[in-house]
Amino acid sequence: MKSGESGQNEDARPIDVKQAVAAYAQSEKVKSGLIWVCQVAEQVAIMDDPGRAQALPLLKTLAHLVADEAILAGRVTADRRWQAIGQKINMALVMINSGVPQETAFHLTQALARVTAIGGQAASVLKDNGLF
Known about the structure:
The protein is mainly alpha-helical.
């Protein structure tokens, strides 16, 4: 591809360079956040009851921050795939709110796979345009 040409996303909608930059940047932020949430959830899951009670609000806050970044990514890139990522994070929040943070890994891993796909596509567009 030459500069200014577009790639395609799963929705068969062209992705331009500006969208690719935003998608790549957001994907890196959200990926990092998902990994943090997953790691913290594992630590909270092995805590005793008093420690868990104190750590759950922190975990909830962190998960909400990552969910907010996914929402922002969807708005900035106009890519509907971010909604599905937000849904996966919300399912992880349901597990956290239910007091079973150890059950978040499944949902967070699904979200991570989707974010990685978006980031990979964006990186490909940037590479094809000589920007990466």
